[in-house]
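#lab-general

N.A. 3:47 PM
ok so I finally got the sequence cleaned up, no stray characters, all 205 residues accounted for. can someone with queue access submit it? mine expired

B.Y. 3:52 PM
send it over

N.A. 3:53 PM
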Amino acid sequence: MKKRISLDSTIKYSLDKVSCFERAVANQLNHKNGYYGDLFIILSKIYQFYFLQIGVDSREKIIELSKRLLKLEIKHIHKNNFSKNIQNYINKGYVTVLGGNLISLFYSEQYMEKDWPHWFIITGYDTDKKLYYVIDDIQYAHEDKVYGDVCLTSKMLKSIYKKYISKYGIKWSCFVLEPQQELFLSEALRKILMLYTYTKYVSTK
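B.Y. 4:20 PM
back already:
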């Protein structure tokens, strides 16, 4: 059985401006709603620039803010029946975000050298060929290219996933973000800007 979701409008979001986590999440959200990914980036950058505290997990804080302000629900994919769960989400039309450790990915610069967390977008699978279709840019090395398609065998995917968990834990290892309530762009922007202006006002009182 083969199932693949087409992402024709992925945005690179240059890594000197966003992290690979933000980029993967933003493109996953954009697939379901054309501007939610951009809203996530705006919210993430406002939080990091004005409110980030040393030693605080910014990913957790940003996801919590996204859930509250953008009405998103995070669905973690449990490591038990990992492959089947990913396939189920893809069958429902959801691309998934996967955390991997590049120490196990043969075409990365970190291969067999050092642990390095990285997030991918899984867009499809082929059970007959035992393949997963992934969108990423690691395969381009230093070339300035947009996200591109790459195939990973089931064994490769499980390897980078398990290495991620063994080093960094289960959190953010595999998940989907889903809007629970459709917000107009203007309303979502108002909520994000209110977070900034209200918090800054309170902090100066």
